[in-house]
Recover the amino acids of this structure.
């Protein structure tokens, strides 16, 4: 069983349920869409993590909260070092199969490719 | 043709999922439409509800996927959706206009299901259970034939009407044919590009190059 440590808080990893996963997809979608090469995100999740943290740290906490099954407010605590957040976030993304999550966000139309935004969903259905 | 059923494992139990016949297929399509509305409105509750409803209708059993991890539920959803995808070259389905039409005053929820069934029943006189048990591809072919016949009949009537024959100042007939739906219009021919018209020179791979790498 994977354990996630954040300061003096310890969590046992439990996969997200469908509702949490869809919520996470909605938060992730704008960041995923910004990176033109989709394969890059799937290979290197740190790009995605940096983007989220630099653009809107609140989204970072929201995602963490979905993956830890707690309220985001509980996470905003002082005294936890940046590297610890990153390690926990990376572990949670990996355990929750982030590449599959991102892929499915595209399948469900929650995340959209740039060409899809320009030409509409007609092209998606081929 | 896709398989008529697939076996999936849910919560350690093997379940046989049959491919949807026309009746169930229309219900599934309605669920997908609702799901897309949920995505547009960023309503995660609606999206999840539609995904679970889609699976429940497909496997004809409720609560089987309750509380399962997301990867299991969404993988099952994509698997079942692929099983129920339309395998057809019918132009009516290929044209697929995804533009949302303006609502009409006589609209009601799930009307699309009734419209398709009504169209087939009206022309062939089949019972509801007979229509619902058609394969979706068969039903689509019948609907296309019905719509083609209706269109050609309308075109004939239109050609006899004075509305189709406006005249210019000299009295010349400027015949205007009845516009056809997109799926009935001619398929554009593939344009051949001459070698001379192609770009020339060395191809430089610019992937990974940023603005800072470029000279002024």
């Amino acid at each position: 069983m994977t354990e996630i440590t954040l300061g003096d808080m310890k969590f046992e990893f439990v996969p997200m349920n469908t509702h949490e996963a869809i919520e996470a997809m909605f938060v992730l979608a704008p960041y995923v869409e910004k990176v033109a090469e989709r394969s890059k995100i799937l290979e290197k999740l740190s790009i995605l993590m940096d983007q989220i943290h630099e653009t809107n740290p609140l989204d970072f906490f929201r995602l963490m909260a979905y993956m830890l099954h707690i309220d985001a407010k509980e996470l905003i605590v002082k005294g936890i070092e940046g590297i610890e957040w990153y390690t926990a976030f990376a572990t949670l993304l990996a355990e929750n199969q982030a590449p599959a999550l991102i892929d499915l966000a595209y399948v469900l139309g929650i995340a959209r490719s740039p060409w899809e935004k320009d030409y509409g969903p007609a092209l998606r259905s081929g | 043709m896709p398989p008529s059923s697939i076996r999936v494992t849910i919560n350690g139990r093997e379940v046989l999922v049959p491919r949807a016949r026309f009746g169930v297929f229309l219900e599934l399509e309605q669920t997908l439409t609702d799901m897309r509305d949920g995505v547009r409105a960023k309503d995660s509750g609606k999206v999840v509800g539609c995904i679970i409803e889609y699976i429940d209708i497909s496997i004809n059993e409720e609560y089987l996927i309750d509380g399962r991890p997301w990867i299991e539920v969404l993988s099952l959803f994509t698997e079942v959706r692929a099983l129920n995808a339309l395998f057809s070259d019918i132009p009516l389905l290929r044209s697929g206009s995804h533009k949302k039409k303006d609502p009409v005053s006589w609209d009601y929820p799930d009307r699309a299901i009734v419209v398709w069934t009504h169209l087939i029943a009206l022309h062939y006189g089949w019972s509801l259970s007979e229509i619902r048990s058609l394969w979706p591809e068969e039903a689509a072919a019948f609907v296309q034939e019905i719509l083609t016949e209706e269109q050609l009949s309308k075109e004939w009537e239109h050609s006899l009407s004075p509305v189709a024959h406006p005249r210019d100042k000299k009295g010349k007939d400027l015949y205007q044919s009845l516009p056809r739906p997109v799926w009935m219009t001619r398929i554009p021919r593939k344009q051949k590009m001459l070698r001379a018209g192609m770009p020339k020179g060395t191809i430089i791979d610019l992937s990974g190059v940023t603005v800072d790498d470029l000279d002024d």
